[in-house]
Amino acid sequence: PGLYMRASTRGAFIRSTLTAPLATTRRRRTIFFEGFVGSNQNMTESAVVTHTGNNTLKDGWFSEISPEMWPGQANSLEIQEKLYDQQSEFQHVQVFKTSTYGNLLVLDGCIQATERDEFAYQEMIAHLPLCAISREPKRVLIIGGGDGGALREVTRHRCVERVEMAEIDGMVPEVSKMFMPYMARGFEDERATVMICDGVKFVESCEEGTYDCVIVDSSDPIGPASVLFEERFFRSVFKALKPGGVVCTQGECLWLHGELIGDTLEMCKKVFVGGSVSYAYCTIPTYPSGQIGFVLASKPEVDGKTVTFERPSREAPKTKEGSTLKPLKYYNSAIHSAAFVLPEFARQIVEPHLVPGNDAAA
Questions:
Q1: Active site residues
Q2: Positive or negative CA dihedral for 67, 29, 295, 118?
Q3: Which regions of the chain are under pLDDT 50?
């Protein structure tokens, strides 16, 4: 049921329908794969992929379309070859070779990372929180982030003694290791522990005051990732943080998701009582509108001090001699501070929900 085939002059025409439960509603999401499948799966053959809208892979181009998340626009990349295409227990996992952006990881029809520009997002989601903390962070938790990019960046900080990842889909780390090995380099670090589990349940079970930093590397708030934008989840993160600890979570696009960003910041303001709340962003060409943001919040210290995110307290990590990691390509201390300077339309959206830190130098 849900699968049928018919003869075609160019190969077998396949249509399959897969359903996956949404995390917070009774609604179910339908994913369609429709296309011409040849013996070598060469991308010169026409194909169409639809997910929560009309994402397409046609005439050698992949287009990411979502009327729900970015209505009226699309982002397209030229494809040379399909490298991987499997349905995991949770999502549709694909990897394509692009003509100009290297390998491309796609989850449920949405672009997650490309080899050419992944460093912008990965460096910022890790170093913004870790360099804002005045003390040396020792223990870090990553929720999601199965591609390994955020993990790679956390391991640059030599002071970190232990970094744990709670990723729900075990297929994603394995695919990343196969097709995006540099992004997955952090999995090789001896300080890293990867747990294939429900990140929400994991953080709920954590002892109070366990982590110096929690990084929530989530996809958009559709499907399983939607619970990572709820108040209950943020209260669990607050509990898991040590006094003075920080959280950084993927904060969507200022051009597209102003209301969602405002709501998320206001929720953090409600949960992180006595702490600080801020918002930053970076540019990255293959994400919708070429930009993505970061919501940051700090738990107050015992003496009431809170992190001033806009000013880095620690230097950017240096590449260790003999390391297989390349030098940083996006993050530095100047870009750290600049990332919090918003264009006027965005400032008006964000500023009413911000809570400044109080640990800035006089």
A1: 217
A2: negative
A3: 1-54, 361-362
pTM of the shown model? 0.84
Helices (H) and strands (E) in the chain, counts: 8, 17
Residue 256 sits at the vertex; the CA angle it makes with 169 and 108, to the nearest 5 degrees, is 25
Are 195 and 164 within 8 A, CB to CB?
yes
**Per-residue model confidence (pLDDT) at position 67:** 83
Give pLDDT, residue 55: 61
For residue 125, the cross-strand partners are none
Read off φ and ψ for residue 316, nearest 5 degrees.
Answer: -60, 140
The whole-angstrom separation of Cα 218 and Cα 16 is: 27
DSSP output for 193-239: EEEES-HHHHHHHSPTT-EEEEEEE---SSGGGGGGGSHHHHHHHHH
CA distance 118 to 28: 30
277 and 297 in contact (C-beta within 8 Å)?
yes
